[in-house]
Amino acid sequence: MANEKIPYKIYLEESEMPQSWYNVRADMKNKPAPLLNPGTHQPMTAEELGGVFCADLVQQELDNDTAFIPIPEEIRNFYKMYRPSPLVRAYCLEEKLQTPAKIYYKFEGNNTSGSHKLNSAIAQAYYAKKQGLKGVTTETGAGQWGTALAMACAYLGLDCKVYMVKVSYEQKPFRREVMRTYGASVTPSPSDTTNVGRKILAEHPGTTGSLGCAISEAVEAAVSTPGYRYVLGSVLNQVLLHQSVIGLETKTAMDKYGIKPDIIIGCAGGGSNLGGLIAPFMGQKLRGEADYRIVAVEPASCPSLTRGRFAYDFADTGMVCPLAKMYTLGSGFIPAPNHAGGLRYHGMSPILSQLYDDGLMEAVSVPQTKVFEAAEQFARVEGILPAPESSHAIRVAIDEALKCKETGEEKTILFGLTGTGYFDMVAYEKFHEGQMDDYVPSDEELAAYFAQLPKID
Ligand SMILES: *Cc1c(COP(=O)(O)O)cnc(C)c1O
């Protein structure tokens, strides 16, 4: 069954690694809408953004026109410690499913932080260092982003202050300790160390926190501490730019063997891994050079693309951040506490939101028990213990492969395997004990959050 010529793992040479990131905005006819000042509702200027973000990153955030942005040599050298990442032909999964489909996955879990987030963490830390800053603040949910940033900051000798969503801080002590091992300070959010944290605690005593709330705290901490800036692990244009390294490597590897994917699948939380994986393929699609089916997979319990509104919204619960036009469930939305599979942010990357709205990609949502079934099936044949987030993509890749089995089509399926799940065993335990249920928010619940969307004209 196996095509002898294609190895189980396609590795690139160091010399084949990308020298530049690819900025898909350059090829988009409809550009993502600009971030707005939450007070004036005018587009944020570079100067305003510079109070929150590092200068070079502000430039990248606002650059809708430059297709290729060189990756500084220091970042390329850091990448070489854990990249190029393998593109794996899932022969064992294909065999198990008895499908004629050819399945490939790009594996981003081969670094200590365990996910793709290190690709942007090192870039953001590098520009902060270059600007002569003392440190950075950020939020983290499950902890992968905080871990990645802690690693990058340790490498460059920067301070790293992490606000960690309280439920994760309590349920994921190991990830917290990894961050501390790399020298980061970790505060459970909401906390009493910021004005916005104290306000949220007063209004919602006993809250387990949310990403939106931790973002507000991290931004406040950055703007009120001299020599600090805020960094974010997903959603922003700059993060998708850095993550394009995933797609560029994948494209080079596939081109080497003459492989063209029919379907490209990725999990979508804030959209950074998917935006990175699809970047060069979407570029071809936008330029009319090739066509691909592109599918974003999100949890049914946090369905921003499939059930959200495409509107300007606050990026954070505390409403201190700029407004972003994106598919959103409303900045007050917090997924049910039994939601164990990550991907819990209320909004979606403005770039992906625009591409989705323009009909250039699809989205599906999947219930979490189905996600964990796929995770287990994958682990048992491919060996890798996948992150719950990544397993959303596995679910849909398996579903598509099973459709091929019915129709006899030999489609080529590519998906992003964003990370490993070693620190997510509490979620796996719930699944094994039959304590995981598939909470899906009702239309009425969502309507209440939509009613809170800011009115922008
Ligand atoms: C953070 C994370 C995601 C989701 O974030 P995106 O920005 O949507 O990519 C997916 N998988 C893993 C392993 C993660 O750590």
Describe the structure.
This protein has 457 residues and is of the alpha/beta class. It folds into two domains: 20-70 and 117-230, Rossmann fold, CATH 3.40.50.1100; 83-114 and 246-450, 3-Layer(aba) Sandwich (Rossmann fold). Helices cover 42% and strands 16% of the residues. It has helices at 46-50, 55-62, 73-82, 91-97, 118-130, 144-156, 166-171, 173-181, 195-203, 211-223, 237-256, 272-286, 304-307, 350-357, 368-382, 388-407, 425-432, 443-450; strands spanning 9-10, 20-22, 68-70, 87-89, 102-107, 135-140, 159-165, 185-189, 228-230, 263-267, 293-299, 309-314, 323-328, 362-366, 412-417. The strands form four sheets. It has a seven-stranded mixed beta sheet, sandwiched between helices. α4 packs across α15 (368-382) and α9 runs antiparallel to α10. The chain is globular, with a radius of gyration of 20 Å. It binds pyridoxal-5'-phosphate. Pyridoxal-5'-phosphate binds next to α6, α12 and α16. The site of pyridoxal-5'-phosphate has 18 residues, from α6, α12 and α16.
